[in-house]
Structure formats: structure tokens, C-alpha cells
Amino acid sequence: MPRHETRSGAAWLACAEPAEVDGFLGGLGANALASLPWLFEFWALPHQLPPEGDWKSWVIMGGRGAGKTRAGAEWVRAQVEGSTPLEAGRARRVALVAETFDQGRDVMVMGDSGILACSPPDRRPVWEAGRRRLVWPNGATATVFSAHEPEALRGPQFDAAWADELAKWKRAEETWDMLQFALRLGSHPQQVITTTPRNVGVLKAILRNASTVVTHAPTDANRAYLAESFLTEVEARYAGTRLGRQELEGVLLEDVEGALWTTGMLEGCRVEDTPRLDRIVVAVDPAVTGGAASDECGIVVAGVVAEGPPQDWRAYVLQDATVRGGPTDWARAAIAAMQRHGAERLVAEVNQGGDLVESVIRQVDPLVPFRALRAGRGKGLRAEPVAALYEQGRVRHLRGLGALEDQMCRMTVQGFQGRGSPDRVDALVWAIHELMIEPAGHYRRPQVRGL
Predict the structure, then answer these.
(1) pLDDT bucket at 22, cuts 50 / 70 / 90
(2) CB 300 within 8 A of CB 319
(3) Least CB-packed of 27, 140, 287, 363 within 10 Å?
(4) Which structural domains are found in the chain, ordered by start?
């Protein structure tokens, strides 16, 4: 799926010298100046402009407030409007599909970034409430549909469509299928999907389609048009969390079937700070080879409160310090993480590198407390008892572990269901084994003498 990148006229204008701006505006006639506010191609952010090419579906995927609705509304305008108010455009019949009819009307049609607000006075369509449709001066129409009523799309036909917030439709697959059958007019009907990503099958299927193109932007990309108080609040609450990656960064987060960890489980273990920790370790899953094509070296810092019997112990994951590079790079990064957090030991898997792993670490710091670990079982089986500790509520996460948590939600007992190697998860598993599982195996309950 190709991604689109360009630079808008507004971006150039914002960076231009005052004399250049004055020269540009001074060179425009009265009609050009009057029309400039309505020329979305000039003001748009890169992710809001249609990609080039012969695509069928354009998915605009972004965080909350990233400008997705405005992009969808402006695309509809570009399809239905001609060179003059009465001249026909490329599309004559448009489907506007939202989760509910009210949301379609209030957001897509009448919202602050909706079609009516984006349309210049001489081309503004008329809203026919009884028929739930917009009618343009050139005769083009756009009808609003609810995803709760997919059968309403059986019968009508269209040459363009805009689907808003598809990832949260309750009957998404049924509605999407009906829309595809209805999108059959013209020589090349197209559709735009504006959505905050969610782990739903219909969105993932659309993204896998060869005829789909994607533009993407985080909430911060539209900062100039958002209240600073809104950004401050949501970033303080969600930045550095898995939910924040979805809602602010616009990243599609996938929980695979049978995963040992889920998004809900990880969001439920979030804490803002930690109590005094009895032990802190840095765990490393080494990448024996370096270079741009090599796997990352997983480096995870974790600590434990080990008061009372093992069932009362609580672990805290403090940092994901994973790096990509050669052996010296990850060794330096791991030792630096020890120094930052006051860790008492560095542990590393040596199945792949053998003595080389310890040798590299000793070259950086000959006196570092080090323990070599050897895996006797597969990654999934090794991770299972660690996941059980999460289910018991005995492991907590600080913020900033989004990439680690993404890998965790793709780890199953059968193995890792994602691209590459689960280096971060491996390091996490070794850290929790070192802090919680192995010490519990050696724990002996104090003997109470009889009277």
C-alpha cells in the first residue's frame, strides 16, 4: 500500500520570508484572493491530500483530531464539483456512511469540518432532511446511511463513497459488503475511509487489499488547529501508552488470536510511578550480528518489590531500552541502562552468542555483575508463566513501553505472530524470570517452632 507525502502551499507560506508572502499575495487578483480560503489543496496537510495512482480505496488513518473529517469532506467536494457551480463533476451520486445517521448528519454534513462548512457559498449544497441527502447546484447528491442498517445500501448505486470511523461500526463487515455492491457507477468508482485505527477484521482486510492506499498522521500533525489545552490533557493522560499509540498516533494495534497478552490487560496494569524496589535488573536478548538488516537487541529494565512470600511480590517494568546495532552498541546501551536505574545485575540469553555475549559486555565494563541465561524451551512456552503473573495483577508497567507492548500482544504459546523476532518480549520474559519466577522456586517458607 503506497503512502503519500507532499508539501502543501500553506506549509511553504508558513516558512516563507515576509517579502515572499507579500509578493505571492500581491500577485493574486481579486477573484483569486477570494477563492484562496476554499482551495484545500493549498492549505491541506500532506496526509489530507489524495494519493496519486489508480486506487479503489483511500484509508486516511490518524489520531483523534488529526484532520480526517476535513480530508473526507474536501474529497467529496473535489468529486462532485465542476469547474463552475453548475458544471458536473466526476461523481454524481455519493454515499456517506457513518456509524449512525445522527453522526453522519452532525459530523460529515453539518460538523465544523463537514461538507457544508467546507463548501464555498456558490457551490454549497442544500440539506434535504427528509431524504437525508445533500443536493449540489449541479445536481449531484450525497446520501447519508447508518452502519446499523446495512440493508439500506441494498438497491441504491453510487460512483463515490465516504465511510467515516469505520473501525467502530458495530455491523462493519455487513455494511462494508453492501457498500461495495452499491459502488458500481462510473468508469472508476472510489471510496475514502476516515478512521482512528482499531483492531477489527474489516479494516485489516481493507488495508491488505492491493487497490488500497493509505495516508497516516498523529494528532500532533494538526496541532495548529487544535486547542492547546486539549493536546496538553490528552498527551499527559495517554502519551507513552498502548492506547495512546492508537488514539493519538493513529497506529493500528493488533491483538492476535490466542495472544498471551491483550491490550485490555496491558492498559489495566499501567502505573504512573513505582514504590521503593528491592531489586532491579537489566535483561538483554542479544542480536549477535549488527547492521541495518539485523534484529534489534531487546533491552528491558524491570524491578521487584519482594516483601513477604512470593505470591505477594510485585514486578515493575521500568524501561524498554532496545537498540539496533552491533554488539558493542547494545552492550553499551545495556550498561548505560543499568547505571540510569541503579540495577544490580545484567542478565542475557546466550543461546545464540555463547561466550561471545559475556565477552562483549566485559569489554565495555569488566566488573559488571553478569549472569548468562540459557533457554531450554520455546519462546511461547517460556513466556506463558510470565503472562500468568500479568493475569494475577502482579506486574505493572510505566509509560513509554508501546513498542514492547505491541510485541506482547502478538506472542502466543505457539510463538510470535508478527514480523521479525520478538526481541523486546524475550528481554521482558528474562527480566521477570530473574526477578519473580526463579527466586520463587528457591523460596522456603520460614519454619515455626512449636512451644
Answers:
(1) low
(2) yes
(3) 27
(4) 9-246 (3.40.50.300), 263-442 (3.30.420.240)
